[in-house]
Batch of 4 targets.
Target 1
Amino acid sequence: MLSNTTRTQIKKGSHKAVFDPQALYDIIDESLIAHIAIEEDRGPVVIPMLAWRVDNKVYIHGAKNSRLLRTLKTGHKTCLTFTLFDGWVLARSAFHHSAHYRSAVVFGQFENIKDNHEKDRVLNHFIEHIAPGRTEEVRLSNNKELTATQVLAIELNEASVKIGRHCVNDDKEDLDLQTWAGILPYRTVIGPLEPCDDLDSSINLPDYSRAYKHRWYK
Amino acid sequence: MLSNTTRTQIKKGSHKAVFDPQALYDIIDESLIAHIAIEEDRGPVVIPMLAWRVDNKVYIHGAKNSRLLRTLKTGHKTCLTFTLFDGWVLARSAFHHSAHYRSAVVFGQFENIKDNHEKDRVLNHFIEHIAPGRTEEVRLSNNKELTATQVLAIELNEASVKIGRHCVNDDKEDLDLQTWAGILPYRTVIGPLEPCDDLDSSINLPDYSRAYKHRWYK
């Protein structure tokens, strides 16, 4: 069960709250992007970061001189939010229009991963997540590259999940209107792969589509 | 030209900074979701909100009892971030993997829109943005509904835009590896429309696809 602290308790739209940790994991795994906040003297700053999960932790990475990572590695209290937009609910009245979405809000503090073997392990997890099998194909990172890469981890201890997936909910007196009502779905699709200009044309095209729900091409 | 204050100046990856206001507008118009931060006693909180633009302002809305809106309407300093993920850059080395993305970070303070006519105007802009022509088809909001809706606006005065769109950038010594390298593109696609269960089957299916780059169906 996900924690239900005063902070993660969902007050608005509490019927959309979900307490299954797998729902949290699924949203993080599909999102790829975390919007992460830090507090500065002039107010909060929200930065989008690539983020991936291994077991019960979320990882982010970047260059050592990144302002965000320098702040977060000191244990600055933070919030990471993941959002997937799934479509519009088009009601017969303007007022009842709404959205289908899945979102997760995570609270906590990051820890700095110092060990290069551990960095290598979790970075390779990330590559496998976006392109299954690719760590067998690429040149893996050397020690110099791993040392230049800052990797931070946050434990998924305090989090809330919200899933909006209801259908049209019009007022009774609007049901006879001759207005189309229903869902306008959104999907994220991938591909086809675009080779870079200098690629040796004898190299086989890989297929990473098994990591994705939908692809653009046949 | 977008402002270049000490806060919006992009230090990391400054070659990706973009100063054309139209680039900011395009990212906001395509994003639909803003990740908005507020500061609370225990640290920052990032909430995803539907957000849309009219001229040089971004609007958000919700019910009057929403905690986020109650905080923001008092002039709380905030940050809104919009991010579009466009794909993976798959390099020959693990280290040079990166992402295609477009992001915008906006700083400022929201103002509360009190006038129901102005709320109606900007909410109808939002519906037209997601479903062109739909304000001619639906029952528009009445005064009671507009009064129950909180609408906040923020001027786009301080913002930065970052666009990552480079191709594979491998080390010279890795160019001879027999590893596929290139881009794995992501697209957001819409449709087809899904009617709600109780819809009168004689009502024509609308076509809102002109507001979107890609659709899922033929």
Target 2
Amino acid sequence: PGGRFTISSDDGAYAVQIGLAFHEDVGGFMGMSPRAGETKGLFPGLTENARRLRIPISFRYKNWIANITPDFGSGSADGSVTLYEANLNYAGIHNTVLTAGYFQPRVTEEDSESSNEFEMMERPAITDIVRNIAAGDARFSIGGLHYAKRWWIAGYLTGQTYGNRSSSTNPISDSQTGATFRVAGRPYVSRDIDVHVGLSAISAFKVNEGAQGRVYSPSEAPEVNLTTTKLLSATVGDAGTVWSAGPELGFRWKRLVLKGEYYHIGVQRKGGADTGNMPATNFEGYYGAANYTLFGKGRAYNIKEGAFSAPGVEHPFDPVHGYWGALELSARYSVADLNSNLGTASAVRGGQQTVWSAGLNWYPNRHFRFMLDFNHFIVTRNSELYNLMGRDGNSVAGRLQAAF
Amino acid sequence: PGGRFTISSDDGAYAVQIGLAFHEDVGGFMGMSPRAGETKGLFPGLTENARRLRIPISFRYKNWIANITPDFGSGSADGSVTLYEANLNYAGIHNTVLTAGYFQPRVTEEDSESSNEFEMMERPAITDIVRNIAAGDARFSIGGLHYAKRWWIAGYLTGQTYGNRSSSTNPISDSQTGATFRVAGRPYVSRDIDVHVGLSAISAFKVNEGAQGRVYSPSEAPEVNLTTTKLLSATVGDAGTVWSAGPELGFRWKRLVLKGEYYHIGVQRKGGADTGNMPATNFEGYYGAANYTLFGKGRAYNIKEGAFSAPGVEHPFDPVHGYWGALELSARYSVADLNSNLGTASAVRGGQQTVWSAGLNWYPNRHFRFMLDFNHFIVTRNSELYNLMGRDGNSVAGRLQAAF
Amino acid sequence: PGGRFTISSDDGAYAVQIGLAFHEDVGGFMGMSPRAGETKGLFPGLTENARRLRIPISFRYKNWIANITPDFGSGSADGSVTLYEANLNYAGIHNTVLTAGYFQPRVTEEDSESSNEFEMMERPAITDIVRNIAAGDARFSIGGLHYAKRWWIAGYLTGQTYGNRSSSTNPISDSQTGATFRVAGRPYVSRDIDVHVGLSAISAFKVNEGAQGRVYSPSEAPEVNLTTTKLLSATVGDAGTVWSAGPELGFRWKRLVLKGEYYHIGVQRKGGADTGNMPATNFEGYYGAANYTLFGKGRAYNIKEGAFSAPGVEHPFDPVHGYWGALELSARYSVADLNSNLGTASAVRGGQQTVWSAGLNWYPNRHFRFMLDFNHFIVTRNSELYNLMGRDGNSVAGRLQAAF
């Protein structure tokens, strides 16, 4: 399906598939001079990154499926080798998939889209922060999803991420447990219109315990993965339960798609024996995005994901015959606020990041895509040496993509 | 064969295969409070581990075969990426396979079984300690095996394990050389009965030389791979030749399989210029195991491995038609003693570990398996900070398995 | 092609391929005693190395191709896991391939040969040093090549190598940019004779900026990859542009192939504010090689590579019928000089390495190869602790190879 190579046995009992999700980024930062007293940070003017280099391999015997996906990208520093997923699935129940193993349980509309089909190169910062609480790539999960033509629901119990305990510098003496939940629906559907509403929730019942105890420390790059310097970065020690929830809204009119989501994050804090429990830490974020397909078949609703999918290519690139594939424009405004209780004894100052972005995606055919994104970002100060005074800057980045 | 996907050329000269060995564990430890003065160690109450995530790929041209098997599990800390094997084979001689390259040369009955077919989730501690002397996963090996209906024999010269010299903190100035030997036979065979006898021997002629000289340092987890804390842990400095040998016994009566093995380990020790040679260090260990297949086809003898294989599934899981796959019960008693010459100047106190375990394995079909193991372990003190006084405890763990 | 497994769709629009480049080395060093005051270095008497364990996977849709090649060898210390290439290609123009992504852009005749077809186990030191300036494995590249029956040309803009920015100890604040160029031709061709001339050039416009600023630091093992100790090793601080260029010459007469190349390397140096620019650093190197095919089909010219390829096997190994595959002999003399401006304030003393080598390659069939190489090397002193006085020594090494 979708061009993924499949070999099946004649009786249909067996099938093996091999695919590819290839995302390589090139670009850099402009206007990133640090203010007085700040260190520079790592903001190269021109660099590259192996963003995703996944080779999904799938083995099926009747209704039982084993998936394994090595990833040679996975990072923001020219690539590293890890695992994207490795899970067992039972698909014997109609429109339902039960899953156990390393998996990406989907929360939020943005995270429910395949990364092959994103409007912009990266998710909004708040989406990444929310999903990393107890979901994200290669999270050990047990749960299931069910979809129908008008609604979608999923829930998973989750543990740690692949490789989590491997650290020699931060030995993990107790592991994370958490859960995710998402429900989405389409209250109105017509040929020209799709209305999407949804609710996502996620919680780490307890974050894992390392050398510094239980610490929740969200951090984010400015919606472009060409630096390891995270201007937005908070550390919440003595963390108890971490939770987040928020609404999803989406609207399609012909070739125009509008989307927005808001999430609140709460972190319960246990103090020391002397201080008693501390006030909860509260973070939040939101984004609004608009997308328009200039030529090609516009974005559509994917009921298996409960999310919007990429434009279709009606005729592959063939300039001799006047075929140019598909082209779309995107714009987004995104805010993530990791400041909490400022001015009190329990203040956490992780900074607030605002990103304005605009992008262009060209699809010469259904398997290849070229993206170009411009971001302008403004980040208020936190306590990192490279962000003592607040930083702002710009990035221009392109992506080479192949998906089979 | 066995459901491994194979593509062959029409003339049979070429074939390529791709398979999967997928083992993921979930579980934790109970009753692991340290005694006074001990550190806690890493014994999470609930955690997970990517135990084996192997993708065997095989290329054949006539009688020559190249195997390569990436492994994304391989560890006890949520997975890491490495190589399970990469070797060349010549299969042009009847019932014989000559091998060179990174390989797992088989010693002991337990190690000769495929990990897809183990009775319990992990090998007995003594089996792991013995095989790691000069065999184990991805060991550079040159040798061969021959099998017949009633006997099995193999021998390999071995070097280091894949990745051995990569350490930046312990540079290797000289490499290990060693050898393995195993012979096994079936003195009595009938429809209801299999009698297995065997002898395994292994030696590291010289262990590799790192920053601390030549050191032999066996260590083991308590037969559950959900912790990196090795309660059983010995260090033998100035090590010369390390050898081990011992008998294998196995007996099948209908659906019941009984097994037991004993191994002695000897480590020759070179002292400093002033002390002269020191007395040899001696370790030992043994186990006894019982297994019964409740439903499904019982365990059988695999002449290619010289070892017992997993139960067969006569009808895949299909509750509507009353088919439940196969189910088996296992129990094991295992001892590994890494104490030697206690009370003398050449004492090595690595601790003695006893493990009582019981397990249940369910096979819904021939490719998937679910395991549940309970272990109770008692480990006497050694000199590790987390085991100054002796430790005991329990573990409960489950495994998700797929094998293609 | 060449036995690579390919699955295509019936209409030819789709194809997927999977292959293997398997190179494992065994051998060691002799006569490597350090001189007075030097440390030993890591020169094992007998060790092994996973030199290349690549699994090339290729996805094609019409004229667009995505390649990805995991590598489980890649090193000199028993293997490590990385990426050899991951790139997108457009092949819609006759005899032309346009490429973007992680790639090995070819410079020099020696580097243009497939590693499956090398005369000796390793490239000459100077070839490795030159290609590593701005090419080598998994270099981010954008460019193209064109070949015809009598000539070959290629040029690429290049960035960093896969994984370059991942270092936690040497954070990269600015990335490398560079370029490569190669043109080659065959002024005279007949059945018995091939004359090859070529020119290769390469430049790092700026090397990347790490914690020590912009540093160019070439280093090489003695043309055998069984040690991580680089006797030849130079460090050029405050490096500006690095460039190299030189001629390629090759000549085939029947089964005899003669080759030689020379390269000069120039490093522009920026001084501190007080010192001003420093004189340029200059390195150089060359090699001459002879190869004769004793039996089998001799080496031939590969117009797609602009380089000589390996002998052909007319009849696979089958001693019963008197077929022994192919056998060739190689010899090489190679010099790499990393000393510059000795006796002046801007001296760089990286040492000069001379290697005499001789080798034997046996091909039982077209997919398997066994190599045996002897090297004698002489390295003059530099400032490394293991080479304070100059070192010489010998190595004997064999290689197991499979290529599909």
Target 3
Amino acid sequence: MPATETLKRFREITRLMKQYEEILGVAYWDMRTGAPRKGIPLRSEAVGALSAESFRLSVSDEMGELLEKLSSPGEALSRIDRRLVEEVKKDYDRNRKLPPELYREYVVLTTQAEAVWEEAKENNDFPAFAPYLEKIIDYNRRFIELWGVKGTPYDTLLDLYEPGMSAAELDRLFGELRSRLVPLAEAIAQSGNKPDTSFLEGTFDKEAQKAFSKFILNEMGYDFEAGRLDESVHPFMTGLNLGDARITTRYLSNDLTFALFGTIHEGGHALYEQNIDPELGGTLLAGGTSMGIHESQSRLWENMIGRRRGFWQRYFPELSKHFPGRLDNITAEDFYRGINVVQPGLIRIEADELTYNLHIMIRYEIEKMLFNEGLTVRELPEVWNAKYKEALGIEPPNDSAGVLQDTHWSGGAFGYFPSYSLGNMYAAQMMDVANRELPKLEEQIGAGQLHPLKDWLKEKVYRHGKLLQPAEIIQSVSGRPLQSSYLCDYLEAKYQDIYRL
Amino acid sequence: MPATETLKRFREITRLMKQYEEILGVAYWDMRTGAPRKGIPLRSEAVGALSAESFRLSVSDEMGELLEKLSSPGEALSRIDRRLVEEVKKDYDRNRKLPPELYREYVVLTTQAEAVWEEAKENNDFPAFAPYLEKIIDYNRRFIELWGVKGTPYDTLLDLYEPGMSAAELDRLFGELRSRLVPLAEAIAQSGNKPDTSFLEGTFDKEAQKAFSKFILNEMGYDFEAGRLDESVHPFMTGLNLGDARITTRYLSNDLTFALFGTIHEGGHALYEQNIDPELGGTLLAGGTSMGIHESQSRLWENMIGRRRGFWQRYFPELSKHFPGRLDNITAEDFYRGINVVQPGLIRIEADELTYNLHIMIRYEIEKMLFNEGLTVRELPEVWNAKYKEALGIEPPNDSAGVLQDTHWSGGAFGYFPSYSLGNMYAAQMMDVANRELPKLEEQIGAGQLHPLKDWLKEKVYRHGKLLQPAEIIQSVSGRPLQSSYLCDYLEAKYQDIYRL
């Protein structure tokens, strides 16, 4: 096959893989936003069957031959084609190393384990879940061996979600986080200046919440002609193609902030997907470059913009108008303080902006112990509880509120948790640059002009899609590798002010 | 390959084809119910690419070998497998006979032609559309040659939509229709007892229309756990799987009947799909057996139930309650007469239950002339206008309201139109039997008990899916082949009463 034919065929197959991803994404979105209950069993089978077709393309002998030819040093490829080859080759190498039978067993195991976990959590019965968790960890250990250890065994798992990340790097990042945020949280706990949050109690009309969510998305520059907002039990964003990045949220009548910050969070993810360079459209590079970078955009918008003083100076009057009589005696400053209350708790998904990172740090340390240091599943609850006591000063009364709280491990997603805090660190480091490169940023946000920041992020992050690796993104934005000091600086300054420390 | 292996592989591939159909159906539904505009170009490409993958399965050499083995007289197949082989073989034979290049040209041509038709209709410019229509007809003539002429050339096209149907049969059916319905329409036109329709003018709250649509679907036995009701510009039903048959409708604030009867119509289609035998689930036999039989169910529910006197004796008070103050001085009888007004018009999709059949008859006669009798495209407008004058007593003032009104021909769908009237004929013949086998039917409908009829239709029609051919269905329900006399009897009785002829 001549070189141009090889490239043509490679582009054709990878485009088809992306097209499977897109159409399956529509089915996935549909199942979570209102597909009728009785259609789900056959729908799930159909989704599984078509996923298998796409997987088959990605690990075929033909793909192997194409990749070999296109990876040879003599090939003069465009920047896009070269990255595409790299990306696809990485998955190919990984997937070809897993015996299909082993992988099938693992899929069956995790499917069962997810159901077992759900019941165990409900019944506070860790021993019921433990044997499944042990097996899942065993399988992951075998996968690591088959894939090849990079640095430490846990590094191999980290690379699945944050390409290039290592335990050594995370030790450095979480080390500083621990040394600065644990004392900060303690100082806050002892502060006498607690924000008032009583005005957030009671009910808030759901239709008004919906209207305000749409309003804020518009303000952020979310393009409703390239997306839509729906409701689902667990909010998510799905980037189906560059012209279709959908958001879901959930309106709770007794909680104003859940939908509000959930919407801004998913809106941040969507801004990323909507602003990828059209040149990448339809290729496998048309997506966020890593879990961590994606999470940096949702968290930047949710916390650093959405929970910012200046933002509410501009938008609190609008918010108040949406809920007549509900927030009349509250000032923008009251609201800002109320939504930034810090309260060490046991549950990660209910955590505030600051202590959230400590929840993640604990999970990171435990995962590393499991894969690098021989921690056993039996020892997990005890280690979990001790770490909560040490970092947050509180101890779970039972495993449901402790080691059983998250679904991730039941699905085998080890190495995923760090992405959440990496997102916060990337975001803080980016905002540090943005504050210097956009000298009027504070003023603009206070005036409801969010587009200069959005345009800046588009230029620096969004447009690149997967063309740049996470480490390349943060290096090119800030001129240095990822540091946790920016996040610590940001959190210290913000919360020292709020709590008058 | 041993026989059991052959069968296993055949079932596997055809199940996968069905799964493609289902997932692509979700994407199709999504595009018509709110997918964002900017995502459509890439989405359409993705749908096209996956459709091509499924098509490839259906015409592969492997499929050819499987079909040959499974069609051999020695094979002992179950009833389901045998029908599945027949169905798949029919498509295989048809598709293998078309040179792929020829078919690709045709797809491009019809895609262009649809856009040209839309503009020509807007500008009343038949000459602009004529060359495209000529080419489309030429392609269809070549397809007929390649597929093989059955009886007459037009029969080959009819078989695409109504397996086993022929021009000879339609001549017989439409012949009687013409001889009885044209005089009936004339008598109605001269009647002095015209129903009052003035109360249908003005506005009707859309939310109330939506609520009443849902109420009526529930009454019909539509299962909302196996479907959903949404809005789209052109209402449709899509049977994604046996647990997911979705309906769309369109609410017009100045037209109460559009959404009302549209919903009942699509609801009839959906009842068919929701009640197919679960044994057929996931196979290519899980669907309506033909366009005509499908249309019989939508029209039976829309017209023979939804426009029935007894139905509104039960439901008019409910309807009136949904629109406070709007229908206060109207009786159920007024409403029944008002929604059954007969008014010869030029536009098929606006036609009443009776004259609708004359619109179809005209299209049937013209299509037959085009493919069997050498009518040229140039002569079309003149023939069209003459036929309207003759059958309906009115003549289009221009081609936009005449020969250019329907989209079907621009997409190459010749042979499709007859299905609409076949649906009416099947429905009337079935209802004739239902009236005898369910002696309390009238009473039940008057009491809002629609489930005995639904259950009867499930037993006679729905559950069979594609296991029975259309001719087998009508034969097994009524003990004889399709006749148009039942439809004529029904329409005469109904409208002689309403118009006191």
Target 4
Amino acid sequence: MKIGVIGGGQLGRMLALAGTPLGMNFAFLDPAPDACAAPLGEHLRADYGDQDHLRQLADEVDLVTFEFESVPAETVAFLSQFVPVYPSADALRIARDRWFEKSMFKDLGVPTPTFADIQSQADLDAAVASIGLPAVLKTRTLGYDGKGQKVLRSATDVAGTFAELGSVPCLLEGFVPFTGEVSLIAVRARDGETRFYPLVHNTHEAGILRLSVASTAHPLQGLAEDYAGRVLQKLDYVGVLAFEFFEVDGGLKANEIAPRVHNSGHWTIEGAECSQFENHLRAVAGLPLGSTAKVGESAMLNFIGEVPAVAQVAAIDDCHLHHYGKAFKVGRKVGHATVRCADRATLQRQIAEVQALIQG
Amino acid sequence: MKIGVIGGGQLGRMLALAGTPLGMNFAFLDPAPDACAAPLGEHLRADYGDQDHLRQLADEVDLVTFEFESVPAETVAFLSQFVPVYPSADALRIARDRWFEKSMFKDLGVPTPTFADIQSQADLDAAVASIGLPAVLKTRTLGYDGKGQKVLRSATDVAGTFAELGSVPCLLEGFVPFTGEVSLIAVRARDGETRFYPLVHNTHEAGILRLSVASTAHPLQGLAEDYAGRVLQKLDYVGVLAFEFFEVDGGLKANEIAPRVHNSGHWTIEGAECSQFENHLRAVAGLPLGSTAKVGESAMLNFIGEVPAVAQVAAIDDCHLHHYGKAFKVGRKVGHATVRCADRATLQRQIAEVQALIQG
């Protein structure tokens, strides 16, 4: 089976590493000449709107999936004429736009921060008056890793901010005094079978994920699965979907969903019986899903900007390096490490060792 | 770091899958147009004796290693002039020739079946008279998966057999009434550090490995490590070496070594903290070795001739498919499955499920 992937970054690369042993071949559509997934498959170097190359991709592959959600709706609609596309155009349309996404949460009774659609500075001023400060202004589409958003703490922050974010449609969100951030990686098969990985505790710095720790018997697991299940069913979703929550007052408020494999699920390569990458491929290919059970205790740490010397990473016990083969650049995700072991105390020690290397 | 691999079959493919996350790139020298490792790296399609392509490979890569041992000695010697080669030409020269191999066992005090060098039918007749029947005649080089060998049970089997095996140098081995076959996968770093995986119980049919089960606290583990350690040190070996033993009278007799990653170590991809493939690459690249500790109970089953339907393999709990992407052909190794779980009873059930699929 040949899988077409829109995007050829590290998520595509890890999809190919998971899918090759299943006998799958891959083609990546990505305009970047140095797309890091390219060595593991065919590379169609073209813009996402290039209909000739989209048509070529559709002709060559059995199905198409995505490694990022900021794909133009027209691209998905065009592809869908010729080849099965998972997740669906509808699911992508909603997940890539914070207004549609938050409105869906509200409709489904999934708690989420107060929000308002912002189409102008006047909208913003009115929404701030209603929601209050602090609040966060985010572009409705194309934001990631803290980009395309601004925290508003005082009236000074509000003035002219709509223009500062590019005068594009935005969403204002009331600030949530959360005690933690967790994510739920879910996978849903074509036949509707759904499985969930254990909740993951995430730590961000400057808007970028740094550390994900898989939990054991988290008290909010059931609630998170309930909320995510409503969304998966509503979207008739196929594939892996990541659900980010704020922990607030012993409950959960939905932050956002990502309709793809997710950075906070990278630990599953070593830390779960079947990884998020393999399960995404199983789902889109119509195969039975794999077990989402944990294999020991594990945590994932991102390498931002540069990967430490391979010998130093390899010297840490039970540490698994994932080098993305990308050029090093400040603020760029260029690799990660997963530590896996039998108990929490050892895990904490191993996390500290990797952190020392990162800060070294 | 770019690694050159002589051979581009499934072992090369799994080396690339293990090395890509370490940030390594691969080039495979293999004359086969459909070499199944080729999609994961550069493919230099040339004969193993093609000096132009060997020189090109040496110029492009940081080091060269092997995925099979039947490489002409001249190839290794030629490459070694230009680029580091691991394991060394000396280690390969001994491991690829049953006479050198068995003589080394004898010199090192490692028990092995009685053997004799056979250069003619007269040698064979004399050796049969001395060693007795049953016995096994094997070509000194190039044998694998039961090829290049013949079991001699009666005088009729002996007559004309030297010519039947091609009139090439052979080894006659006394038949060993073994109670089981085990293998030890060892890895030795450039600095001499050595690690061993748990002993593996192997089951062959018609000379081809069918089932490998990783053991727990095997009573012969220490003895096997002692024997293998002598060989590794003698050869100043770098990389993974597989050591096959017969279990005889509560002890071990050395059958053969393979100077490479080995089919009986494929379970380590899921079943050990660091796989034989990653550890081989760590060793040859001068990196610290990874842990050889088991992760749960696991077993590997080969798919010979054809891979069952992917959906059926994926439907078995905790079953991991490794499809080699090779054309199906009777008697050919085209894939394997590893089952991994927490306890032996579940493992036996899972093995039976995969076997039912194979026989189905």
